[in-house]
Every structure is written in C-alpha cells, then in structure tokens.
C-alpha cells in the first residue's frame, strides 16, 4: 500500500532577493508544501537500535542515502560559514552562504520526506574532517569541490534505482542545484576558466559522471564517523 507524504520546508531560510548563478530557480519553492506518494510498505524496515543502522530497501534506501550525503554537505558548510577562513572575499562569503542555505534545505527536506513514510529514518550522523584546515582557503575550496562533484555523481548514479517518479523528479531538481554548486566552487578556484565544466566531470558526450552508491560511500566515508550499512547495495 502506498503512503502519502506531505512535506513542508517551513522555517528553512533562503535568500532569494539576489539573482545570481546559484539561485534555486524555484526548486526550493517547489519543495515547500510538496506532496509525494510514499514507497510501498514492503520497502519499510523497522529500526533495531542495538544494531548498525541499515539504510533500507527500495526507495527508502535511496532517500536515506541522499539524506546521508545532504547531512554531510550541510555539516561541512555550517562549519565554513560559522568561521570563515582568513582573507575570504565578500563574493566568496556570498557563495558559501548560499551553498549553506541550499544544503540545509535539502537535508531538512529528506528528513521530513522519510519521516513521513517510514520509521526507518537515518539518524543524525557525526562527521570528521581530519585533513581539512577550515582556516585555509585552498583546503576549504578543495574539499567543497570534492563534495559537490561527488554529490552530482551520487545522484546521477542512484537515479536508475528510484521507482517512484515523484522522487525521481525531485532528485533531478536537486542534482541540478548540486551541479551549480560544483561549477561555482570551480570558478572560485580558477576564475574565468573553463574548469566549471572541465573534462574531469563532463565527458565527450556532454554528460556528468554517474557513480554507484558503493563507490560514493567509499569516497565520502572518510568524513562520516557514524557507521551505517546498505546491504541492498553491497555496503556492509
């Protein structure tokens, strides 16, 4: 049986007063008040707190996977904007603040969506950044670039596993924003260059890469302290 999920991002903040490259272009407003059709009951798994959390099966697993990645990005940008690196420009502050707001909205959206469909909601994760110097511009930008490129590849790779067309539409809207983030960071690193759509992320067919969840978690896992599994996708 399908369950209906009513999602609202009430309370989330986003500066829409400025028209620039990073604006959501209606994605944030589309999420507000969105009604989704939930996953099949067969996809739901009860949580056993005595064991390592498993993301689940079917669309619930995909949503928890996306939620984990959005938690990571929101946590990273929270640290960036709470203590900007030395010598940061006003443009860079503006970009990082926009990215922070976007990722918080994405994170809170997934939490609300999953909570409305199942009890199998990924808990709040703990993160670590052992090789990141948040006081150093190059370190912060390099990490942001890695996270955004990884996020784009993650959504592209997970799309084929989504069975609910409503979820697929939302995933497409969010990955387009993640791609804007990636381009913006690349432009900060090398202003005015073609790096915003470099050959390392856009192939000969004009497409972004798509990576399997197992490959994504192996890369992003270095930042994630809280262990989880996703047995359906071979992550144990």
Automatic annotation (TrEMBL):
Membrane-crossing ranges are 21-38
Lineage: superkingdom: Bacteria
This protein's UniProt keywords: Membrane, Transmembrane, Transmembrane helix
The record's listing under Pfam families reads:
Ferritin_2
Protein name, per record: Ferritin-like domain-containing protein
Task: Please report the organism this UniProt entry assigns to the protein.
Answer: Chryseobacterium pennipullorum
